[in-house]
User: What shape does this take?
Amino acid sequence: GAGVSQSPRYKVAKRGQDVALRCDPISGHVSLFWYQQALGQGPEFLTYFQNEAQLDKSGLPSDRFFAERPEGSVSTLKIQRTQQEDSAVYLCASSLGQGNTEAFFGQGTRLTVV
Amino acid sequence: AQSVTQLDSQVPVFEEAPVELRCNYSSSVSVYLFWYVQYPNQGLQLLLKYLSGSTLVKGINGFEAEFNKSQTSFHLRKPSVHISDTAEYFCAVSDFNRGSTLGRLYFGRGTQLTVWP
Assistant: This one.
């Protein structure tokens, strides 16, 4: 596609609900990153995929967070039993390779847990 | 882990005035440096990046930044701002040391630039 696409753009969940956030990276991009951006903060790293392999998940805040990219393209970030502190914008970024290649960001999914 | 400090959370300026947004990072080891801009309800757009070579980097929309290794700084500048430059600006660092996830970005907290007519 022309850019990184994320859906839904906005999600309101009741506390305790499970949510799934989708990311469609740019076609052919090997690397995929998820970031969490709390209100008034910079994005913080959650996890990284190289093709279908999840090589770094050190930024996931708890075991309620799970990410997958089974075919090395679309990725899903799942949050189980959502809590109010999960409210944030979740950004997905993809890049052609590693290192100095430019990362392209999606518009993000704004999650509000009520 | 890297740490990125953006010293100013808000910078108000008048149109056509010069502006400097400050950024310092924690480590003097090998890094790549980036500035991103975020408009309301939008994702991040790359303004410019420093990978190697000349320490003065030019980006889109008339912005430039200078890498200063001794001061571990990467300040963003524009000689004359427009109202359309009003946005949030993020400085980011990526290191390429052994054991690091290549391409992982460490962001500052952001600087809100507001340009007044």
Summary: Chain B has a mean pLDDT of 91. The two ends of chain B are 41 Å apart (CA to CA). Chain B touches chain A at residues 4, 6, 32, 36, 41-46, 49, 51, 90, 92, 94, 96, 101-110 (CB under 8 Å).
